[in-house]
């Protein structure tokens, strides 16, 4: 029988239960609230504001990890996974609501699913070291994080709602272009990582 895992062992639970990871978890737990506001209460503006707040606080967990000295491999994987899940579910929900063009949503979701799957396979199958998000990738995420809830407000009945729709398109177009571009840029990096790992295994 294997020995029980000590929760204080470095690299195990001690790197999981940290303040940055708790903040990431809190953001994830806001997802059901977003869906309830959108579909349960039919409050698209409130749902959009919550989604915008989740996007605006995307940097906080990383900042806390560095500030508190609680950077961990789990956190490096947990944070982008939660961001990707929030994004995919939110975009899908807004399309179901009829507030966002389906073609635009399809491109966004496909990019996230394909890149996410590629990273999972590279990490867990080929043991490729984590590839950091590029500056352009962060810019793409920033633009889309505000464009997506903007479409939700733009289709609401508030005053000047059409301005939000115009602003959303102005953010979404460069956001999607950058998102696809940075997604394609991951491919040669992953291939190089896989080749390197295969080379190491043959030595």
Supply the key terms.
Four Helix Bundle (Hemerythrin (Met), subunit A); 203 residues; disordered N terminus; mainly alpha; 75% helix; globular
Quickly describe the structure:
With 203 residues, the protein is mainly α.
- Examine the coordinates and then state which fold CATH places here, giving the name of the CATH topology: Four Helix Bundle (Hemerythrin (Met), subunit A)
Q: Domain count, please report it.
A: 1
The secondary-structure class comes to: mainly alpha
Tell me the helix content: over 70%
Quaternary: single chain
Beta fraction: under 5%
Q: Strand-and-helix sequence, N→C? A: HHHHHHH
Quote the average pLDDT: 87
Give the name of the CATH superfamily. CDP-alcohol phosphotransferase transmembrane (TM) domain
Task: Specify the number of helices.
Answer: 7
**Through-space gap between termini:** 34 Å
CATH level 1 name: Mainly Alpha
What is the radius of gyration?
19 Å
The biggest beta sheet is recorded as: none
Outline type? globular
Overall number of strands: 0
Low-pLDDT regions: 1-12
CATH architecture: Up-down Bundle
What do these coordinates show?
75% of the residues lie in helices and 0% in strands. Helix 4 runs antiparallel to helix 5 (102-124), helix 4 runs parallel beside helix 6 (135-154) and helix 5 (102-124) packs parallel to helix 7. It is mainly alpha-helical. The chain has helices at 19-40, 44-56, 60-68, 73-97, 102-124, 135-154, 161-201. The radius of gyration is 19 Å and the shape is globular. The model is unreliable at 1-12 (pLDDT under 50). The chain has a single domain (13-201), classed as Four Helix Bundle (Hemerythrin (Met), subunit A) (Up-down Bundle), CATH 1.20.120.1760.
């Amino acid at each position: 029988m294997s020995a029980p895992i000590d929760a204080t062992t470095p690299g195990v639970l001690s790197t999981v239960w940290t303040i940055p990871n708790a903040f990431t978890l809190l953001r994830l737990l806001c997802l059901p609230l977003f869906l309830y506001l959108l579909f349960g209460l039919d409050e698209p503006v409130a749902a959009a504001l919550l989604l915008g707040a989740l996007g605006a606080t995307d940097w906080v967990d990383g900042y806390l990890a560095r500030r508190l000295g609680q950077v961990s491999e789990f956190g490096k994987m947990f944070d982008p996974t939660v961001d990707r899940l929030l994004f995919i579910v939110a975009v899908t929900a807004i399309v179901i609501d009829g507030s966002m063009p389906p073609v635009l949503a399809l491109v966004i979701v496909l990019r996230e699913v394909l890149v996410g799957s590629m990273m999972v396979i590279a990490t867990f199958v080929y043991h490729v070291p984590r590839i950091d998000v590029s500056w352009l990738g962060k810019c793409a995420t920033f633009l889309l994080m505000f464009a997506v809830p903007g479409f939700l407000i733009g289709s609401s009945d508030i005053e000047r709602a059409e301005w939000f729709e115009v602003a959303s398109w102005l953010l979404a177009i460069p956001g999607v272009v950058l998102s696809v571009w940075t997604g394609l840029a991951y491919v040669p990096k992953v291939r190089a990582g896989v080749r390197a790992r295969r080379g190491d295994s043959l030595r």
